[in-house]
Automatic annotation (TrEMBL):
Name of the top EC class for this enzyme: isomerase
Protein name: UDP-glucose 4-epimerase
Gene Ontology molecular-function annotations: UDP-glucose 4-epimerase activity
Keyword Iron: no
Ranges of residues in domain NAD-dependent epimerase/dehydratase: 6-252
Family the entry assigns: Belongs to the NAD(P)-dependent epimerase/dehydratase family.
InterPro entries, A to Z: Epimerase_deHydtase, NAD(P)-bd_dom_sf, UDP_G4E
The keyword Lyase appears for this protein: no
Catalytic activities: UDP-alpha-D-glucose = UDP-alpha-D-galactose
């Protein structure tokens, strides 16, 4: 018998891929999205779209009254680190309040499973790499702080109400659906791989590399990239893990890649040069950020299918080349 899942932010990048993964395994999917950042065309075929804002508590209550959900998978959030440092109060207020009102609505409706798309930005500048679950939690941005407050609220929801939650902390979702049905379409785009691809395709000015004097092998920052389809699989796997209780997992590929390595991968895959210029460092950018996923692998059996950087870039290039206007092409 098919189970019904609520996916908030399911018209966005990661949320839409999770909604697709649920639908493909035969589950019923209800997407709740205000479409401020998501795209109607990104909602997978067969999923039901409810256009509403999480801040509208009456609309959210109506969704819970209309369906019997097995679990909530929560992706809807403000998510730009730089913007959060310009508007910290907005990020702390909106991300935290909306998420916890959603959790309260789930409790009132008798839902007992909640999966949070969290962030490895909880850890700020880490003491060791890769970052495991025992690393000190000290966010370096208002975005990270807002997610930490949500995680703490969910821990209380479990303690008091029995709402079991899984929080997945990861850095850089990348790539696109291998079958080409979904991709990455942010407005504005801030992620390195699509920016490098667009520069190679001549759609944007040269890519800016923010700093080349870091204490790394090639002087540029090293980051963790996880294929969005692998992320979706991780979210599905922790649904089963919640049968045993709440959990928190760091999620990474196990190896980081520098900005120059990403540029080289885009050039190999696309067969074109990536025009780029060197700019100043961005304030607060640590030299290396790589998350460990050893606990997740051990406890759920998750393993990435698209671990190689070229494979991640290849799916991103294919989708972006076919959709120069993003979802506006459909």
């Amino acid at each position: 018998m098919a189970r019904t899942y609520l996916v908030t932010g399911g018209a966005g990048y990661v949320g839409s891929h999770v909604a697709l993964a649920l639908a493909e395994r035969g589950d019923r999917v209800v997407v709740l999205d205000n479409l401020s950042q998501g795209h109607r065309a990104a909602v997978p075929e067969g999923a039901e779209l409810v256009v509403a804002d999480l801040a509208d508590r009456h609309a959210v209550a109506e969704v819970f009254a209309a369906y019997r959900f097995e679990a909530v998978l929560h992706f809807a959030a403000l998510s730009l680190v730089g913007e959060s440092m310009r508007e910290p109060l907005r990020y702390c207020a909106e991300n935290t309040a909306n998420s916890l009102w959603l959790a309260e609505a789930a409790v009132k409706a008798g839902v007992r499973k909640f999966v949070l798309s969290s962030t490895a930005a909880l850890f700020g500048a880490p003491d060791r790499i890769p970052i495991d679950e025992e690393a000190p939690v000290r966010p370096g941005s208002a975005y990270g702080e807002s997610k930490l407050m949500v995680e703490r609220g969910l821990a209380w929801a479990d303690r008091v109400h029995g709402l079991r939650s899984a929080c997945l902390r990861y850095f850089n979702a990348a790539g696109a659906d291998p079958a080409g049905r979904l991709g990455e379409d942010h407005r504005p785009e801030t992620h390195l791989i699509p920016l490098a691809i667009d520069a190679a395709l001549g759609r944007t000015p040269p890519l800016t590399v923010f700093g080349d004097d870091y204490p790394t092998p090639d002087g540029t920052c090293i980051r963790d990239y996880v294929h969005v389809t692998d992320l979706a699989e991780a979210h599905l796997r922790v649904l089963d893990r919640l049968e045993e209780g709440s959990c928190r997992y760091n999620l990474g590929n196990g190896a980081g890649h520098s900005v120059r390595e990403v540029i080289a991968a885009v050039e190999r895959v696309g067969g074109r040069k990536v025009p780029h210029v060197i700019g100043p460092r961005r304030p607060g950018d640590p030299p290396v950020l790589v998350a460990s996923s050893e606990r997740l692998r051990r406890e759920t059996g998750w393993t990435p299918r698209f671990a190689a950087l070229d494979d991640i870039v290849r799916t991103a290039w294919a989708w972006r080349e076919r959709h120069p206007g993003g979802y506006g092409d459909r």
